[in-house]
Structures are given as C-alpha cells and as structure tokens.
Write a structure and sequence with these properties.
This protein is α/β, with parallel strands linked by helices. The strands form six sheets. A seven-stranded mixed barrel has the order 22-23-24-25-28-27-26, surrounded by four helices. A six-stranded mixed β-sheet has the order 8-7-4-5-6-21, with helices on both faces. The protein has a five-stranded mixed β-sheet with strand order 1-13-10-11-12. Strand 5, helix 3 and strand 6 form a beta-alpha-beta unit. 58% of the residues are buried. The chain binds alpha-methylisocitric acid and iron/sulfur cluster. The site of alpha-methylisocitric acid has 12 residues, from helix 2. Iron/sulfur cluster binds next to loops.
Length: 663
Amino acid sequence: MYNCIQSYMAFSSKSIEKGDEYMGLNLAQKIIKAHLVEGEMIAGREIAIKIDQTLTQDSTGTMAYLQFEAMGVPRVKTKKSVAYIDHNTLQAGFENADDHKYIQTVASKHGVYFSRPGNGICHQVQLERFGVPGMTLLGSDSHTPTGGGLGMLAIGAGGLDVAVAMGGGAYYLTMPKVCKVELKGQLKPWVSAKDIILEVLRVMSVKGGVGKVIEYAGEGVKTLTVPERATITNMGAELGATTSIFPSDEITHAFMKAQGRENAWVALAPDADAIYDEHIILDLETLEPLAAQPHSPDNVDTITNIGPIKVDQVAIGSCTNASYLDMMKVAKILKGKTVHSNVSLVIAPGSKQVFDMIAQNGALADMIAAGARILESACGPCIGMGQAPSTDAVSLRTFNRNFEGRSGTVSAKVYLVSPEVAAVSAIEGVLADPRAFGEAPQIALPDEFVVNDNMVLAPEPEGQDVEVIRGPNIKPFPLNKALADMVEGKVLIKVEDNITTDHIMPSNAKLLPFRSNIPYLAEFCLAPCNPDFAKRAKENNGGFIVGGTNYGQGSSREHAALAPLYLGIKAVLAKSFARIHKANLINSGILPLVFKNPADYDAIGEFDVLTIEDAVKQVKSGNDIAVKNATQNTSYQMEIEISPKELDMILAGGKINMIKNAN
Ligand code: MIC
Ligand code: SF4
C-alpha cells in the first residue's frame, strides 16, 4: 500500500512538567513563552497569550467589529490590526457593499488598517505584507495559521475573541501538545507542497490535530519556499490543529527581503534538544501527486489509484494555492494549450501583488489565451461565491475544503489537488497524473516582488470624528442570558460525526450577504441536515442539538453559534467538539457537553425531552453533569471540559455578558 510516512511515534504528554526552568523548547513553545501572560505551559492547561497582530475578513468581520464597538474601546491596542474584504465580493445586492462601507469606516475610526476589495485574500496578503516571524497573530478565519509559513504563531478564532484581542485583551487557549513533522529529502518533479499536507491529512485525519501545534522540521524544510510552507500551514486547519509552524531561516529571510521587509525578519528555530509530544517522519522523495476525494479533506489517495475520472470544472486559487509560484506554474503548463472542451477552468490569483506580477510578465496572457476564466483576487468559488459547478459535476480545486455542498452544488463531487494536477487535468479533461505531461515547470521566487500597497488604507490618526456608516442589513447580534438553574427542552436534531460549520451555518452566494443579520441567517441553521430545524426550534422555544465526534469542524464563523443562540439552543450534546466551534459556543453561553458513554449517543432520540436540574450548581461543581431524559426515563453523564474563565462565561451567558459584569 502507498505510504510515505516512515514512522509515527506518539509519546505521552511529558514534554513540559514545570512552568519555567526547563530546557529544550520547540519553536511553538518559544513563541508562547515570549507571549505568555497567564497560566503554566503544561499541555492541556489553560494559558493566555498576548496578541501582536489581528486580522479580520468581511464575512466574520462585521460581527467582530460590532462586538468591538460594544466593548467601548476607542482604539485598537495591537501592534497591527488589518481588516480585509475578500469573501463577500459578489455584490448581487446592496448588502455586501454596505458591509464593506461599515468595515472601512469602523476600521478607520478605531485604528485598523483596511485592505480594500481587490487587494486579495487575507491570508495571502498578510503573509506578503504584514506577517512577522515570532509574532502572534489572531484572525477571525480558520486559515489564519497560513502565517505559520513565515514562523508566526498564527491562530484562527471566533470574531469575539479577535475583538477582545484588538482591545488589548489576552487570548485564552489550551496549551497545545506539539507534534514534530520531520521532512526528509526533496519533492520529486510534479509533486508539490499541497501533496505534503494532503499526506499529513491522510495519516492524521481531520481530527488528528485537535489540541496540537504541528511543527515542521528536518532537512526537507530547506527545500520549501515561504509560499510552499504557507500552503502546508494553511491546510493544517483541516487537521483541526491549533496552528502549524515552520522555522524562520534564510529562506524566510529571502522572501521578506524580496517583499522589501528584510528589517522585520528574525531567525527562529527550536532548541537543539527540543522535546516534542509526537514525532512523524515524512520522506518527501516517496511522495506522489495526491487528491482529497469527496467529501472530506482527509479522504486522500494517489491520483493513479483514483484514476482518470472525467472532469467538468477546475478551479485554481484560494488562500491555499494562489501564490505567485502557484500561478506561474499554472501559466507555464497552460502556455500554448487549450482548456479541454468539457472543462470550465477558473483562476483567481491570491493577491493584487500576484495579479500585478503575472500581468506584467505575460503569464496572465498565457492563461487567458488557453481559455481560463479569470476571477478577481478573492475567495470566490472556495466559499461558494459564484462558479457553482453543474449537477453531479466533478470539480478539481486547489482549495482546502471539499465539504458536501460547499461549492454551491449539493450533488457536485469536489477533489482537492495541487495547482499542477489542476492545470494538467484542465487540459486533459480528466483527473491526470502530471508526471506523464512532460517536464515539470521550474519556477524560482523573484528577487523582488512588485510592492505597491496602494490598496491598503491606514486608519485616521484621530479616529473619533470618523462617521461609521451602517446599512440597513446590519442587525444587532443576539445576547444570551445568565445560565438558568433549570435547563430543559427537546432534542431538536440529532446529527452524525464530523458535522461542519458549513452544515450548521451554510455559506453560499445567497447567504453570505447576511453575515451581519443573524435573524435572517438563523432560518437556514442546520438546513443541510434538516430543512425544518429552524422551524422546530421556534415552535419549541429552543432546545438541544445532539452531535457526533468533531462537531463543528471547519470555519471560525461564530454565526454557527450565534444562529443557534438566536433559536434558543441551550446546549449541544456531542461525542467531541472541534476547537474553534467549542470556543464560539462558550463565548455565546451555550453549553458544550460531551457524552461520557458513547452508547448514550445511540440511545438518545430526536424530540426526547431533556432536563438539566440545578444546572448552575452542577456546572460549577466541575463534576460530570447529569442530563435527564424524561421521554426515555433515563439519564446521561455528560462532561463539560471548560477552564475557570470559560466557566464564568457560561454562568454569565456568554463572553460579552461576562465582560459587562466585570465592569
Ligand atoms: C471558510 O473557509 O470556511 C471561511 C469562509 O473562510 C471561514 C470563515 C467564515 O465562515 O467566514 C473560515 O475558514 O473560518
Ligand atoms: Fe477564503 Fe477559502 Fe481561504 Fe476561507 S478557505 S479564507 S473562503 S480562500
């Protein structure tokens, strides 16, 4: 069987036992130590770190800035905060443009840089223009770990956590374990960085990274440029990891120098005797072109094993694979060829810088001549903002997620591939092994990137006079009440394992414009699982959700907690939770309860009436929580894994209430 992971060693979590006097720090621990403001660096314990930089994007940003305004802090207190417009750029109505105006004005007022629509995808631009090795970055988008390609500790979070960080508050997280992925050797021609992360996903699965930082090391690291490293750290989000990180070395230096930011570079490496909780060795020489098959990023196999299936659409872009390097490879492959007659090829360069450079050097002309449909530099089809494939279509995408329906077409089958596989397949009309295509394109990074930050607006130095413009689409966000003693209601829905935030709060061209309108969005909550969910919730005055393992994987969108809150959801009972979604539930004052006995999940039924008596006392006790099933006359032992800080949030009915109570 194909397997290029040489060994997989899992050690017990003994790496750090004392808070301070230890030797042998890995890179993640070094950055955490330099930013630690609370807690002990013991895996599994709650810590708080200082955040240097934040980023928001528009589909999570409106909510984040509304929450920031509610906190009453006049000016952000970070070293740099940037607001991007990159998701909601398909302006089919007034809503998106209104949201852009709101974000532009609120950013200017409060000291946030504004990256205008057209300037590119947040993670790509942050890497190019703002990222600094060794700094912490908190972003209201799950792919914020892209910055790990530059040696940042870059973490995705809900908008409220980012708002708090902008206001100077620390970010609370569980001290992660650190998994070393040692890269050996060098990639063969036509095999690319995307195949590295697909292989890691194949081995670790979409929940294999939960509670961990994935730290890359070994001689193979030196063979990868910063954009290639960023492809790998970007898609580490699909492992469920807290973040992923590469060292900052001479290759990082060369990238930053070429960006005209040499002065911000610092060298960063783990100590020679660094200790890790897990160790994986990956031999790059044996890696082959891979694809993640429908409908999960860890459903990975080789292109040869999958075979030459007919392809209807190829989409190249996204924060994973739309760098200058990626675009140049694609252009070289397409040069002088024609896109297959059965294929629609769309290409979205990752940033204005990339777009500018391929326009100036003629690569864009090669793409256009081959028949590619060029899109603006934004998320676009990756988040279902246009280019939905045809019924039952096979769509090859260089993106990071292939969850069912995310493309905008429920019956479409999305495969995640490298830019090389995508471009060759667009010409051949079938999923093609690029190794049969001839010589692989060799592209070097330029000594100098085209630097033109004219699409980034600095905030007004004296922001107090800026008028914040709010369109009619911007509605107040829902607030919870303090936890009641008696929590009761019906099980409104029971769902399977690996339910994504795209299931809980679907995002597509029709719904994304309503990201600042929770009452409207709530109508579609969990609709892919059951279109009647919202109706049921309203008819029953709220109730409970029952989920399987890894409930809430995927996006950082807090709408996946705010819409259930609006519908009166009091608790989610699941086998396990994804990291960011669990934090978003707690921030909203919704109880995330874990089945102690997985058989209880099997027994529980939709419409069963559940009660949690003495809820406040039970939650405070730190012991298991008894949930009574009045319909079946049984009771379940549930765990609630929360820190003391999170306990305060749950008791207060969410983070905002907790902050208000403290003032
Ligand atoms: C995504 O890729 O799913 C998104 C859209 O970028 C989300 C953010 C959102 O839902 O707005 C993410 O990854 O966090
Ligand atoms: Fe945008 Fe897609 Fe990246 Fe999310 S994953 S930030 S939608 S490009």
